Amino acid sequence: MRVLAIDPAVRNTGYAILEGDPRKPSVLGYDVISIPAKIPQSAALSAIRTHLVHLIEKHQPDEVAVEGIIFVQSHRTAISMGAARAAALIAAADHGLQVYEYAPRKIKMAVVGKGTADKAQVAFMVRALLGLAETPPPDAADALAIALAHLQASDPLRAKLLDRRLV
């Protein structure tokens, strides 16, 4: 199975493409789609969608996994994150891909073993689990963690640990 995992945000959307067995996946790519603050939000959302469409067409994933909605103090931040998430979901839907959603706490539990792990712990474990030469940027590390959680949830022996919801 090949999965495209997305950590959506208007200015820095992390993504990762993993393939193979949940116990020993191959990393096909990961990075952050960075949109400068001077770009209007509508153009940023369009750029995110376009970039993800290119990734989908290039890598032909079987499924897409995204981080679920998180609690934030600011309504403005929540709306912005929701808009970035929508851009990602539309890119996947336009290609007929099944989308799965994972709560941040469940992702951290799957990768670190602790649902309250911080970004540095997630990045460290992602690097170790995937045998990466360097620690990925935080948003890319989060996307790699989402992909790992999805592959684990797809494994019948581990599926009970994660609640995977279809979006």
Report on the structure:
The protein is of the alpha/beta class and 167 residues long. It has a single domain, classed as Nucleotidyltransferase, domain 5 (2-Layer Sandwich), CATH 3.30.420. It has five helices and six strands, in the order βββαβαβαααβ. β2 and β3 (26-34) form a beta hairpin. The protein is globular, with a radius of gyration of 15 Å.
Question: Briefly, what is this?
Answer:
The chain has helices spanning 41-59, 75-94, 104-111, 119-130, 138-154, and strands at 2-7, 12-19, 26-34, 63-67, 98-102, 165-166. The chain is α/β, with parallel strands linked by helices and 167 residues long.
Keywords:
21% strand, Nucleotidyltransferase, domain 5, alpha/beta, 5 helices, six-stranded mixed sheet, 46% helix, 167 residues
CATH architecture assignment name: 2-Layer Sandwich
- The helix/strand class is alpha/beta
Give helix % range.
40-55%
Strand content: 15-25%
Low-confidence parts: none
Please report the first level of CATH classification, the CATH class. Alpha Beta
- Alpha-carbon distance between the two ends: 19 Å
SSE order in H/E notation? EEEHEHEHHHE
C-alpha-based Rg, rounded: 15 Å
Average of pLDDT: 91
What do we call the CATH topology? Nucleotidyltransferase, domain 5
Number of domains: 1
